[in-house]
TrEMBL record:
PANTHER family: ALDEHYDE OXIDOREDUCTASE MOLYBDENUM COFACTOR ASSEMBLY PROTEIN, MOLYBDENUM COFACTOR INSERTION CHAPERONE PAOD
XdhC- CoxI domain: residues covered: 15-69
Domain XdhC Rossmann span(s) in chain numbering: 169-311
Matching Pfam families: XdhC_C, XdhC_CoxI
Protein name: XdhC family protein
Species assigned in the record: Salinicola endophyticus
Length: 323
């Protein structure tokens, strides 16, 4: 949930700018079953305040207790949690899993603030970076990264932690499905932005924490709103909104582009987009239409669930027939 990681960096910067030492934790590797993936972040301060997650709760409790007891005074160290871990044998993860956590102690100095500011800007930006950490010396630097690759890699004594833009969902148009889609995606850690120029549609739409733009979705997308961690879904059944959004979305690096409609409607839309929108076969092949997994969905909530599940499937690199 990269949007949760953005919240981690927001708080880390705020605390560091207030002169407080923070402990930044990164999940490095997991063995067996573990609730968070490599690269997930948590930040804490000495009073036990923390944002983010490393596990289902047991690891966080142990870590915060050890910080309060005065441990983790080194610049960085790697701690193993789970079955067979010497450091905390009382902590067990679900299904006997294990995880390694990098713990960095960041005092409120210029070097730490620079690290946190670059990480924060990367999550808000358009490009990915790799944070390279030399374990023996504790030196840290940033280097450019391809968009695809593991979030965490280790080469000898060097750790490479990939940072990229926070997951974003752009919902093109407000409909009964849009509200549930926004709520589900937000719960999964997406930054959610809803675009609709119609005042009457916006008037009845209110989901806490969701940004609403009073513009045509196509104009918002064309403004540079999409990066490689963006999904675009059109949910109105109105071609004046949906078609224009698709035409602009295929010009972006968005990893998922989908539009709601039946198979018959989707076939007609494909012909229309090719004829009037100038989309070629490769562009149309990028469009998920009909959108969502085939769950025989009937209600707006069920349709929204199928949409968000399909977005997550593509993000995880799962083929439909592998589910």
């Amino acid at each position: 949930m990269q949007h949760l990681d953005l919240q981690v960096l927001d708080n880390a910067l705020r605390w560091a700018n207030a002169g407080e030492t923070v402990w930044l934790c990164s999940v490095l590797t997991t063995f067996g079953s573990s609730p968070r993936e490599p690269g997930s972040l948590l930040v804490a301060r000495a009073d036990g305040s923390h944002v983010g997650s490393l596990s289902g709760g047991c690891v966080e409790e142990d870590f915060l207790a050890r910080v309060a007891a005065g441990e983790f005074t080194d610049t960085l160290e790697i701690v193993r949690y789970g079955e067979g871990a010497d450091e905390s044998p009382q902590v067990s993860l679900p299904c006997g899993g294990m995880l390694d956590v990098l713990v960095e102690r960041l005092p409120a100095d210029a070097e730490s603030l620079t690290q946190l500011e670059v990480m924060h800007a990367t999550l808000l930006g358009q490009r990915s970076l790799v944070r390279v950490i030399d374990l023996p010396s504790g030196r840290r630097r940033f280097t450019t990264a391809d968009e695809n690759g593991p979030r965490v890699a280790r080469e000898g004594d060097e750790l490479r932690l990939r940072l990229g833009p926070a997951l974003r969902l752009i919902i093109a148009g407000i409909s009964p499905v849009s509200r549930f889609c926004a709520e589900f995606a937000q719960a999964l850690g997406f930054e959610v932005i809803v675009c609709d120029p119609r005042e009457e549609a916006r008037r009845d739409f209110a989901v806490s924490g969701v940004e609403v733009q009073a513009v045509l979705p196509s104009l918002f997308i064309a403004s540079g709103a999409c990066h490689a961690a963006t999904a675009v879904v059109a949910l109105t059944h109105d071609p004046r909104i949906d078609d224009l959004a698709m035409i602009e979305a295929v010009r972006t690096p968005a990893f998922y582009i989908g539009v709601m409609g039946s198979k018959r409607t989707s076939h007609k839309r494909a012909e229309r987009l090719a004829r009037s929108g100038g989309l070629d076969a490769a562009d149309i092949a990028r469009l998920h239409m009909p959108i969502g997994l085939d769950l025989d969905s009937k209600t707006p909530a069920e349709i929204a669930l199928s949409v968000v599940a399909d977005v997550l499937r593509v993000r995880r690199g799962k083929a439909r027939d592998a589910l």
